[in-house]
Every structure is written in C-alpha cells, then in structure tokens.
C-alpha cells in the first residue's frame, strides 16, 4: 500500500494519495466555477459594460462567493491535511473509508449548493443573512459539505495519532504539519459553529422553527464566516514555510518563535470574528473593543511574527549560500524562475501590504464606520484570501503535481509567468476596490447609478478612474487564474509522467551550508522590509483616523 | 525546516537580535492600537452607538408614522419630508426598497436617530460623508448624529435586500 518517492525519499500511502488527488481535483473544479463567475461580476459592476441582468448578478455573486471562497479552499485544505499528516510524516492513512465518505459528502454539498443557486432558489449571497431565506436544499448542501470537511479534519487528527504511535517521525512534528494542526483546530471550532447556525436555519426554512433572530444569526454566522478565513490564513502560512524550505532550503531562524505564533492564532483568532459586528445594533463597546482588539491583536502579532520569520528563513539560507552583499543580494538572487517561489513571495507581499494593513483598519471599532459594507471589504479580502491564500496554494501545486500526481508541469514557461499575472491582477483589483469603497461605493450592489430609485446620487468623479483599474485588475487576475487551471488540468490529465528526479522541473533545494560565526543581525534585509511595512501601516492608519475625525459626529 | 522535525535543542535556541526587535515593535504597536480605541471613546467624536432597544416591525412602524405625521412639511417623489426640531427623536424606517422619511436637519444640532427595518437586514450608508451602519429588523438602533456640514446627502442601502436593492436610496437635507 506504500510507494517510496524516488525524489523526496518519503513513503507515500497510495490510499491517501488517491484522496489527496480527488480533493485537489474538486478544488480546481470549484475554482474554475468561481473564476468564471468572477469575470461575469467584474463585467457587470463596471458600469460601462454592465453585463448581467439584475437577478443574475446576485445569483452569480452568490455562486462566486461560495465556490471561490469556500469550496475551492476547503477542498484544497483537506487535500493539504491528508498530505501533511501522511506523506510528510512517512505515515499511513487512518481510515481511507472515512476519507471517501468525507469526500462524497463534500461533493454532494457542492452539487446541492451550486444547483440551488443556479436554479434561482438561493439568491442569498454567501452570508445568507436571516430573515433572507433560501430553499432548504441550499442549507442542507452547506451542512453536508461542512460535515464532510469535519470528517476530513478528524481523519487528520487520527492520522497524527497513528504516526505518533508508530513513531514514523522524530520527537516533534515538522513545522508544516504543526501549522496544519493549528489550522485543523481552528477548523474544528469553525465547522462546529457552522452546524450550530445552519441546522436551525434549515429547520426555519422548512417551517419547523417559526423565526430566526437576525442578530443572533449574524453573530453565530460570523463565528463560521470569519474563522473559516483564519483556517485559510493558517494553512497559507504553513505553505509559506513549506515554500521557503522547498525552494531555497530555508528554515525559520528560530522555530520556537514560529511555533508560538501558530499557537497565538489558535488562541486569538476565532473571537476576532466580532469585527463584523462593529457597527451593528446590540453589542457594547466593551465587547467590541475586547474581542476585536485585545484578542485580535494576538492574531495580528502572530501574523507580524510570521511576516518576519518566513522571509528571514529565505534570507538566512541565501546568505549561507554566499549571497551576502548588501541588504538585498539574497533576494535578487532568489529562484525567481521557480513559480512556487514567486507565488509564495508575492503572496507574502500582497497579504501583508494589502490584506493586513486594511484588515486592521476594518477591525478597529471606530474606523469600521468608514468601510463597513463598502467595496473596501471585498477589496480587503481580495488581498488576504485571494492574493494571499489562493496564490500560495497555487504555488504549492507546482510541487504537488510532480510529487503527488507524478506528472511534469505542462507549459512550464507559462507557469513561470502565472504567479505574476495572477498576483499583479489581484493586487490592482484589491487596491482599486479598497479605494472605491473609501469613496463610499457599496459592495453587493447591482447599479450604482440607482436607476429606478426615488433619488439619485453621483459618486465623486474620481471613481471612474478606479473602476477602470478595477476592470483591468479583475480581468488580469481572471487570466492568471485560468492560466493556472489550464496548466494544472493539462499536466494532470494529459501531461508526461515523472519517472524520477531527472524529470523534476523545479528544484528541491538541498539544505544550505551551516552558518559561519557572525555578529549583528541574522536577517537585516528582512528587518528593513518589515520596518518599511510598519511605516506604510502607520501612515495608512493615521490617514484613516484623520478622515474619521472629519466626519459627522455620531455616538 | 518545514518538512523535517526541528533540530536538536531548537526550543532553547536564543531568539536573534533583529527578530526580537521586530516582535517588540509589533507588540508595542498592537497595544497602542488597543488603547487608542478606548481613548477615542473618551476624546473622539465618532463612536458607534450602543443604545439599542428591542422592537417589532409593527411597533416601530407605528412610532415612525406618528413621528412623520407630527413634523411633516411636504413630500418628495412620493416620500414624506419631515423637519424635526433639534435634540429630538428621529425615526428612520428601512424597508424593501426605500428609506422613509426624507429628513431636513440643521447643521451643528444633535438628533437622536432611531433606525430599524421592517423586513430584512439593510445597510445605512450616508454619502458622501461615508458613514456606514447596519439596520436590523426587530432592533431599534439609536445613533445620535450631529451633522457638521450642510447640503444634500444620500442614504444608500449597502446590505443586499433583494432584487430592488439598488433602488433603495433616501435623502437627508442639512441646512445652516
Ligand atoms: Cu436595503
């Protein structure tokens, strides 16, 4: 039931490999649906084209959200969990049967949800805020998917126990798997919250429960909604460390620090969902401040620690290879031709400078007044979950394809360009959406000329420019995503087989030579970059607070 | 090493000087941000309200109608125009797909807004000042506004509330 990988020397459980492949394929299918929807949405919101009719706009928006944000990422994460708990640990799959059950439930959920959306019986957007109601089949689909995913997470824990008992690895888990453990703990809490909110909602849509309180629904829903994004962040960071290791042989300059940062995520991150309720009736300021800042900043701090730890791992390895001139010689001589490396590095930059900076403003009690439900919000999560997580996952597949699917990467030249096209497109899209939101442009809105309304309103004419950027960024990102899908599908189904190490197009870096004795900084280049980041962050915060102070007074 | 168990003695390895500096700086910034929000409650003039009453669509609609009838001065595109006195309670109704009434306010005066929905969730988005709040059915959200600029302002709904969501736009007029 095992094969030994002739490239990495790792033992691969064939039953786990099959499940990894299937989940990965479903992830790509979900992403394809999400990307086609994205293109239609860009061409609709850009008022010059305004492609879709009104009911189809909301339908496709619902379709996009669920496929691009939920299905793609969770299928991929389940594949990642199986990979991290079997292949990485040289161990076996605890129960392939339950792995199949999980997969079937998830596919069933995927089908039911997409079916109800496309037939028009679930125009409720991703959040499906009660008392907005969808067909019961829709809620059932979500529940089946969540239960399937939850089984996958439990299998991950079971695999870990087996590996521990059979002593297939050393004393401590590898950092990548450790990061996945953090993600899996968050996932367990998240999916449980999902069940808590969707089960009564299902009963309500069936008429068994009379009513659902809008406030309670929204509070509990975000225990699922935002925390599920924290699974993504955690999994993404695990992939960052993996990428640094595979591409340049980089290891954390201090693993203890990296591991503590993962622990901080587990402690801090679920409560931070409270920032979706900052301008809602109900919660008190004390509740808002405690949950969003005191707790959230444990997670923010953790992100900042990783933001140093990953680039410094790369820097340290590169310096040991002799790239020691000046501050950035190590970066200039990084393997930019390796798409996994460029994907991880762009992911770090986009996640930090766009997603992270805007996320803190969105998550502060008062500045949230400026951004809530404007286009800034999806602009923010284009920076985190698309430019960050999705791009990092794309980078990881460039190793997954030869190592797990045993296929060469098709169109390798295209693959080198793909992270750049996708990353730049998303960066432009995210920034233009954030700025449009700052001008007050709402999210989830069909027609910002308000045609048919009793009054009219014209946004600041500057928005026209940012709508053009929005369209350029959006279309570029769609092209980048389609390039990736083309490469993946072609490689997996029609590609040339990998027969051994000579067929590897990507390097698996050997560990760098040991460090020489030196005084001073371990990673001065990284420190410079992170200080630059801090400067941008503080300027952005000051601008937002200054702007808030100029508004009408409200209390 | 992300794919291998950590080296012997990893737990006791000293944290590098630059990493320590960065973590300390990040921690200080996080603490400042936390206290800043509390400080803004004391010295700042823009804070989301925490006064909320439970209500029902019927009850809120009745209160709002009484308010509209009391201070009504006219009509604009089929929506009543209301001019409440400063420091009074103002009722704003959100429903698919309109805001009622149109409000005429005075600059520099305070108004206690009661905002609620008769059906789904809506979003109160005041433009071009760009202040955004959530509107719930069953909850009477009390926001005390003090307009600091004059002119015509739009209230856009920015939470999806069905097919006519994009037509849901209201108006506030602020006079000197
Ligand atoms: Cu509305």
Structure description:
The complex is a heterodimer of chains A (about 550) and B (about 180). Chain A is an all-alpha fold. Chain A is built from 15 helices and three strands. Chain A has helices at about 15-45, 55-85, 95-120, 135-165, 175-205, 215-250, 255-270, 285-320, 330, 340-360, 370, 375-405, 410-440, 465-495, 525-550; strands at about 1-5, 10-15, 555. In chain A, strands 1-2 form a two-stranded antiparallel ribbon. In chain A, β1 (about 1-5) and β2 form a beta hairpin. In chain A, α4 packs antiparallel against α5 (about 175-205). Chain A is globular. Chain A starts with a strand and ends with a strand. In chain A, about 60% of the residues are buried. Chain B contains two helices and twelve strands. The interface between A and B is large, with 105 and 90 residues. The structure holds copper (II) ion. Copper (II) ion (CU) binds near residues 122, 161, 165 and 168 of chain B. Copper (II) ion binds next to loops of chain B. Chain B: InterPro entries: CcO_II-like_C, Cupredoxin, NosZ/Cyto_c_oxidase_sub2. Chain B: One of its GO terms (molecular function) is copper ion binding. Chain B: It is found in: Cell envelope.
What is the topology?
The complex is a heterodimer of chains A (555) and B (176).
Chain A: E1 2-4, E2 11-13, H1 14-45, H2 54-87, H3 96-118, H4 136-165, H5 175-205, H6 214-248, H7 255-268, H8 285-320, H9 329-332, H10 339-362, H11 368-371, H12 376-404, H13 412-438, H14 463-494, H15 524-549, E3 553-554
Chain B: H1 17-43, E1 51-54, H2 57-71, E2 72-76, E3 79-82, E4 89-95, E5 98-100, E6 102-106, E7 111-117, E8 122-127, E9 131-135, E10 139-146, E11 151-157, E12 169-175
Parallel strand pairs in B: 3-6, 4-7, 6-12
Antiparallel strand pairs in B: 1-10, 2-3, 4-5, 7-10, 8-9, 8-11, 11-12
Bound molecules: copper (II) ion (CU).
């Amino acid at each position: 039931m095992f094969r030994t990988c002739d490239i990495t020397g790792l033992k691969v459980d064939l039953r786990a490999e099959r499940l990894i492949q299937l989940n990965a394929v479903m992830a790509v299918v979900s992403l394809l649906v999400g990307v086609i929807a994205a293109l239609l949405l860009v061409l609709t919101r850009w008022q010059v084209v305004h492609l879709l009719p009104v009911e189809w706009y909301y339908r496709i928006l619902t379709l996009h959200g669920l496929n691009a944000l939920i299905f793609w990422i969770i299928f991929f994460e389940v594949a990642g969990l199986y990979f991290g708990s079997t292949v990485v640990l040289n161990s076996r799959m605890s129960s392939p049967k339950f792995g199949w059950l999980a997969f079937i439930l998830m596919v069933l959920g995927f089908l039911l949800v997409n079916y109800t959306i496309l037939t028009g019986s679930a125009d409720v957007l991703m959040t499906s805020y009660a008392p907005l109601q969808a067909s019961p089949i829709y809620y059932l689909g979500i529940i089946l998917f969540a239960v399937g995913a939850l089984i996958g997470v439990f299998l991950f824990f079971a695999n870990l126990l087996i590996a521990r008992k059979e002593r297939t690895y050393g004393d401590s888990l590898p950092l990548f798997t450790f990061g996945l453990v953090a993600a899996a703990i968050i996932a367990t809490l998240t999916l449980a919250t999902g069940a808590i909110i969707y089960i009564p909602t299902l009963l309500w849509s069936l008429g068994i429960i009379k009513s659902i309180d809008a406030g309670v629904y929204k509070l509990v829903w975000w225990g699922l909604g935002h925390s599920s994004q924290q699974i993504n962040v955690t999994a993404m960071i695990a992939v960052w460390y993996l990428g640094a290791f595979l591409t340049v042989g980089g290891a954390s300059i201090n693993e203890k620090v990296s591991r503590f940062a993962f622990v901080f995520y587990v402690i801090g991150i679920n409560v931070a969902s409270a920032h979706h309720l900052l301008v809602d009736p109900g919660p008190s300021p004390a509740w808002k401040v405690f949950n969003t800042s005191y707790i959230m900043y444990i997670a923010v701090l953790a992100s900042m620690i990783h933001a140093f730890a990953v680039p410094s791992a790369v820097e340290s390895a590169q310096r040991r290879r002799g790239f020691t001139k000046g501050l950035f010689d190590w970066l200039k001589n990084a393997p930019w031709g390796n798409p996994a490396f460029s994907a991880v590095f762009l992911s770090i930059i986009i996640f930090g400078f766009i997603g992270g900076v805007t996320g803190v403003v969105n998550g502060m009690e008062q500045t949230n007044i400026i951004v809530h439900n404007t286009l800034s919000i999806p602009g923010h999560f284009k920076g985190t979950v698309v430019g960050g997580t999705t791009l990092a996952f794309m980078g990881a597949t460039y190793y997954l394809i030869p190592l797990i699917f045993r296929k060469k990467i098709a169109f390798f030249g295209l693959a080198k360009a793909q992270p750049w096209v996708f990353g730049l497109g998303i960066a432009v899209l995210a920034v233009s959406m954030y700025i449009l939101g700052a001008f007050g442009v709402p999210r989830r809105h069909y027609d910002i000329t308000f045609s048919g309304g009793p009054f009219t309103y014209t946004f600041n004419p500057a928005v026209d420019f940012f709508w053009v950027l929005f369209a350029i960024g959006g279309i570029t990102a769609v092209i980048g995503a389609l390039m990736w899908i083309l490469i993946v599908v072609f490689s997996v189904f029609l590609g040339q087989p990998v027969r051994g190490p000579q067929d590897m197009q990507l390097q698996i870096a050997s560990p760098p030579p040991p460090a020489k004795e030196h005084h001073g900084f371990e990673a001065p280049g990284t420190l410079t970059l992170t200080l630059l980041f801090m400067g941008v962050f503080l300027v952005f915060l000051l601008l937002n607070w200054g702007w808030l102070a100029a508004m009408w007074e409200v209390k | 090493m992300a794919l291998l168990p950590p080296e012997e003695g990893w737990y006791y390895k000293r944290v590098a000087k630059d990493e320590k500096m960065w973590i300390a700086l990040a921690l200080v910034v996080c603490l400042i941000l936390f206290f800043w929000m509390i400080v803004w409650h004391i010295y700042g003039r823009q804070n989301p309200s925490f006064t909320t009453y439970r209500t029902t669509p019927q009850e809120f609609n009745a209160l709002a109608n009484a308010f509209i009838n009391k201070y009504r001065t006219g009509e604009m595109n089929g929506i009543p125009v209301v001019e409440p006195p400063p420091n009074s309670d103002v009722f704003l109704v959100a429903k698919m797909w309109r805001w009622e009434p149109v409000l005429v306010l005075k600059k520099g005066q305070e108004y206690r807004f009661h905002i609620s929905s008769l059906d789904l969730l809506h979003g109160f988005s005041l433009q071009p000042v760009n202040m955004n709040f959530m509107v719930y059915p069953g909850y009477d959200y009390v926001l005390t506004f003090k307009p600091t600029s004059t002119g015509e302002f739009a209230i856009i709904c920015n939470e999806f509330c069905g097919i006519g969501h994009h037509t849901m736009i209201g108006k506030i007029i602020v006079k000197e």
